[in-house]
Amino acid sequence: MKDFPIPVVSLDALGARRGPDSQPAEEDGFDYLPLPSGMHTFDLPRMPEAVDPAATAAAIAALQAVLDGLQGWRFGEGANPVFDFSALPADALAVVNEALGQGEVSAIVRGTPEIHVQETVFTGLWRVQALAAGGSIVADTLEAGAIPAVVAAVAAATPRPPTDHALPPLIDGVMNAQPVLHELCAAARAHRSGDPAHVVNLSLLPMTPSDLVWLGAALGDGSTTVLSRGYGNCRITATAVAATWRVQYFNNDDKLILDTIEVTDVPDVALAAAEDFADSLLRLTEWVATLQQGLEDEAGDV
After folding, report:
1. How far is 106 from 11, CA to CA, in rounded Å?
2. Which residues contact 136 (CB under 8 A, 6 or more apart)?
3. Are 95 and 55 in contact (CB under 8 A)?
4. Would the pTM count as exceeding 0.70?
5. 95-139 pLDDT per residue, tens
6. Which of the listed residues 127, 137, 179, 242 has the most CB atoms within 10 Å of its CB?
């Protein structure tokens, strides 16, 4: 993975979600590192390092424009509001990055361009960057919503499995994977946006290691991986079957403790909640006021 020029929580070291005030790690790939423990609570990002006052002023103006643009928008209704940061000067963008901090959810949507997503410390406000093949940034935005629209859109665009869904060859030890796959494919064909999740808890089923390997191969790999940290550690991966996600929870020793497959638009564990977003707007308003006061105090000391 190319260097990501905004503060991004490592896609190796995240984990599950989501409770009120749950908030806020670095490497590429998705191999797990030792994962953090305990519940994460909200912490304001650190005050930006001393920079040119003009850059700070530009950053404050950009954040205030976000707050102004969100006035009157009801969370979850209509299109997600999107704010373009690509025209911000580099020094102002650095202040914005520090001011927004790093939240608990990261995602990659593989493709051309590749989309990198990082939730800020303000739940429901997401940094979204599109990267060209060479790693150059072709879009840089802040998006408000339960999840950036691209994550849900890519999942929705995945084709539904045909009734004659091609299956990989059976392997020794497969016992129960075939009926599970039949259930999941039927649920995926029947699913419509907004339907309740259809959840199969693999941890409670008599599944052999071969069952799990074969089922994973039959479902295939999708283009989206989401990693989240809140009350625990969770890895959410799209399959190649429409609206079908593997959701795996890990304990503090990185041991798999719950393994499920959900047929849903996007699993709830990845989504920001409306109550948390409302709190985020209040906190961001206070944080922008704090930054503005710091800028005025600095000007007064000159």
Report:
1. 6
2. none
3. yes
4. yes
5. 999 999 989 999 999 998 999 999 999 999 999 999 998 888 999
6. 127
